[in-house]
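Hi, can you check this record?
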Amino acid sequence: MSDMSIISAILVVVVAFLAGLEGILDQFQFHQPLVACTLIGAATGNLTAGIMLGGSLQMIALAWANIGAAVAPDAALASVAAAITAGAAAVLLSWGITGGNDKTLTSTSLKAILIRGADRNPGFSWPNRQWGFGMLNLYQSFLQMRE
C-alpha cells in the first residue's frame, strides 16, 4: 500500500467540500454516501473499497428518507468521515499485518487503538453524540500500536 500523496489529500478535501454544499449542488448528489465514498475511494486509489463502503452506507441512508417534517442526519459528512476512517484503518492494518509489525492485529484491537489515539477536547465528556470518541489522529494511533 502506498502513502497518500498531497494530490490525493487535496482531492479528499475537495470531495468533502462538495459534499458539504449539498443545498447548492444537490443535482449532482455529492451528499449521497455512494457518491461521496466512491469519489473518496477514487481519490485515494481504493475505488473498490470506496464503492463497497458507499453502498453499505447508502443502504443505511435509505432509512433516513424525509417524511413530513423530519430532517435526515448529515449523510454527506458521515460518508466522508467513514471513508477517511476506513483508509486510516487500512493503513494501520497494512503496517501491522502486511509489514509484519503486529501479526495479531484484530478489528477489536484496531478499534481500541483508534480510540486511544483520538484527540479529545477536555471540555467535553467522551464519548459523546457529536464527536463520538474524538477526532481521528493517525499519528497518535501509530504511537499507540508501538507501545
Summary: The CA atoms of residues 97 and 104 lie 7 Å apart. The two ends are 23 Å apart (CA to CA). DSSP finds six helices and no strands in the chain.
